Amino acid sequence: MAAGGSTQQRRREMAAASAAAISGAGRCRLSKIGATRRPPPARVRVAVRLRPFVDGTAGASDPPCVRGMDSCSLEIANWRNHQETLKYQFDAFYGERSTQQDIYAGSVQPILRHLLEGQNASVLAYGPTGAGKTHTMLGSPEQPGVIPRALMDLLQLTREEGAEGRPWALSVTMSYLEIYQEKVLDLLDPASGDLVIREDCRGNILIPGLSQKPISSFADFERHFLPASRNRTVGATRLNQRSSRSHAVLLVKVDQRERLAPFRQREGKLYLIDLAGSEDNRRTGNKGLRLKESGAINTSLFVLGKVVDALNQGLPRVPYRDSKLTRLLQDSLGGSAHSILIANIAPERRFYLDTVSALNFAARSKEVINRPFTNESLQPHALGPVKLSQKELLGPPEAKRARGPEEEEIGSPEPMAAPASASQKLRQCLQGRAVS
Ligand code: ADP
Ligand code: MG
User: Fold this and answer.
1) Burial of 436: CB neighbours in 10 Å, binned 0-12, 13-18, 19+
2) 403 contact partners, CB below 8 Å, separation of at least 6
3) What is the pLDDT of residues 55-101, one digit of tens each?
4) Model confidence pLDDT, tens digit, residues 221-240
5) Nearest CA residue ID for atom 19, ligand 1
6) 125 CA → ligand 1 middle, Å
């Protein structure tokens, strides 16, 4: 589990750099200012959260199989050898008494400021179904999770920083999508069908046609988020367990435009992701639809593991394009984002094997190196009229050659999205536990 020697470290850094070169080297006319300096590395941060027993009586007869040692480490029984325990160390360990505020303030809030520097950030909740991912990300009315807290803070921050008289004008937009059975579905416009993931000439990942709603207050956020969450609930009821098989991705973009010369513009993207349950469904003996869904357990989650391994081993090819989720996260894992993975685990014995496998995935993830950079360019009017050709939008031929003969896009094109329906209070959504 410990980090390898300096050679391995160098190989990892080289792999991250070459992945960035392949994905990002562009001859765009919207030049990246200051992009010549190599950005400093930032390791993916990994936190583990152990939830309490949810059935009040279980704890008494069934002691937890995980034990926290300090604020960064924990141990779990070794089922192969009962005399031994397996020990793990992470950036943070949150025990069963930790509050939503502890997790938010300790692991999420510190990365939000990077969005205002034009950098990307992402928060991923990982772990088996029932271990507390949705509780951590969404929470309840009494205990709001990462999503409402982050939105509240981010909107406040952008209001202050973008106020009249400040050098930059700021705007925030949100998109909300679900990846289910390798389909990218717009939760703000469920009628739009499977969406395509593309990459522009600057290495930015885009989903053309994905709804993007401007939000300037928390009420705006609720207005879009709540009906969208209900869209997920409908699916979950109809398809039984669908939401634990799908990845819910909330994307918040912060756009900044400098009010005076040289009229720079910056964009920071925040991904808040409630991943599908990481349990191995082959072992749990699922049948019918669930078995189909878990053909490769869940393709995206399976490839996520392969991406993490490829980055760790410094392999020349990182299989981002093998799944929708990893393609979307290309700039968040071994890419340009400040990333935090929150591995959620449960204390009950029946979760034991899934807990060990989630901890092993978390331990591998903390070796991944990102290189966050400021996504800055000149505003189009400062450069004079710029019209990008289709070819430029798709990226330079060298970059394409470097990528090999793989597809430029995943999925099928879809029309533009329609506006979202009526608004409701976040409280109702949380009460309804819209996303399981
Ligand atoms: P997942 O999204 O990983 O499938 P949930 O977030 O739905 O799991 O959690 C499963 C159950 O455990 C829910 O009833 C949830 O309210 C509860 N729960 C999860 N984490 C905690 C926690 N830290 N404190 C209290 N209850 C929790
Ligand atoms: Mg859930």
Assistant:
1) middle
2) 22
3) 655 555 677 889 999 999 999 988 888 788 999 999 999 999 999 99
4) 999 999 998 877 655 544 44
5) 132
6) 12
What's the whole-number average pLDDT of the chain? Answer: 77
Read off the tokens for 177.
């999508």
* Tokens 């209001």 belong to residue: 159
Q: Percentages helix, strand, coil for the chain, rounded to the nearest 5?
A: 35, 20, 40
CA distance 52 to 59: 9
- Rounded CA gap, 304 and 295, in Å? 15
Q: How far is CA 431 from the centre of its chain?
A: 24
Q: 376: which strand partners?
A: 266
Give the Cα separation of 243 and 238 in Å (integer). 11
- For the chain, which residues make up each domain, given as ranges? 19-34+380-435, 42-374
> Residue 423, SS3?
coil
The encoded tokens of residue 407 equal 């597809």
Given the DSSP bridges, would you call strands 337-345 and 45-50 parallel, antiparallel or unpaired?
A: parallel
Identity of residue 151: L
Tokens of 27: 């001859």
Q: Is the CB of 135 under 6 A from ligand 1?
A: yes
Mutate to test the pocket of ligand 1, among 54, 93, 355 (most ligand atoms within 8 A of CB): 54
pTM reported for the whole predicted model:
0.79
Q: Are 363 and 145 in contact (CB under 8 A)?
A: no
The three-state secondary structure class of 255 is strand
DSSP for residue 144: B
The CATH code of domain 42-374 reads 3.40.850.10
Instruction: Look at ligand 1, atom 11, and give the residue with the nearest C-alpha.
Output: 130
Peptide bond into 262 cis (omega under 30): yes
Longest dimension (CA), the chain: 72
Phi, psi for residue 312 in degrees, rounded to 5: -65, -40
